[in-house]
Queue: 2 jobs
Job 1
Amino acid sequence: MGEREARPVLITGGGRRIGLALAHHFLNQQQPVIVSYRTRYDAIGVLENAGALCIAADFSTDDGILAFAETVKSHTDGLRALIHNASAWIPEKPGISLSDVMQQMMQIHVNAPYLLNHALEPLLRGHGHAASDIIHFTDYVVEKGSDKHIAYAASKAALDNMTRSFARKLAPEVKVNAIAPALILFNETDDAEYRQNALSKSLMKVAPGEKEILDLVDYLFSSCYVTGRSFGVDGGRPLR
């Protein structure tokens, strides 16, 4: 296995949904994978059996973020990519401190990527022109806003902006891009009424599944030119 193939892809929040699909996608390509997880779902054991290195992480504090970075450094001296998938979705509602909501959203969506990008920069550099990637997962609400998830939307907008700043900082060795999804796949518990209502909000009227994301990530990895951009994977939802 060559040096470039040996560098792992690091995925934060790799235990469920898109993060999990990405982890299996890379493992199926014989690409080493490191994932962070907050809750140990059964899927984490499956990933470990498939060869992934799974690391428990607490991104709710700066110390937890930096401790995770040090653990990653103890396992590898190079990264092929850093994919920021870890996320939380907390609405503003009665009985919850607005300050707490904003702090939690900014911590997971802004502070964690900010600190990790800096801490792990040495592992991404030094491998050649456009040889490494950072991908930030944002959200279609960056364009549209959200009256029920104001702090969430604001934090994802900050992450979107940070994409361009890190692209400037890390070029030409590291490409930095964002993916801004809307509905990609349903949860098993979503009932028929909810699904129909959700589908009606996009122009394309489908939940496309993980392949749309996997194909886009593959494209971004293969490019030697695209950086500092945000890619909407939203079925035209912001146009509704």
Job 2
Amino acid sequence: MKRQVTNSGFNPKAILSGKKWQFLQKLVFGLCFVLASLLIFNTITLISASSKPVDAFFVLGGSIRREIYVAKLAKQYPKIPILISRGSKDPCIWLIFQKEAASQIQNVWLEKCADSTFGNFYYGIPILHHWKVHKVKMITSPTHLPRAKWMAQILFGARGIWVETEVVREQGVPGNQESWLKTGLDVTRSLLWAGLSPIIQPQCSSVIKLAEVEMDIWQRRGFKCERQGAVTSDQ
């Protein structure tokens, strides 16, 4: 009767798989340590930023009443820069500031790349980060909530920027309609983008100062503003 020979000693495959497993454990531990460190650092940065004064106004486009509101704020806080993301037509915003806060026109920038609420943050946050903003006041309307607020907390928070939300009431029937599906999709997209935004910083190719709006060209071309703005092209 032949004895069955079993190799219970050296097993290269078992040793190799063991090394791979150890490497994988170290890799996962290292990634968790880095992520935890970044989270702690970002939390400390946010807590610190929350106690600082607001150093930028960020207006989500969608209603001319938001631009009227921020123009009035500009008179109270003349040193704070203003970024309006895809707002009303350029000449309409110019006329609003000319009426409400003419001396602050030099302190207003218009970002015109965004085509959605997510786009407002996608293109706006890199600009505010370049301005070295630590605390921003975001101006929107009730029809944007809670979606815009949650997106702002996620995306601004990922860049260490504390955000406060200022809600401006609209008049009439708003064009924007919120839904839980839209909110869920945008919040999910924001969570995914939050991890990439510190690495990938999109640049908007259409950012101008309000003072550079060529009103003579717009007046020759003709334009209309929202009735709520109480401004016309012949002003």
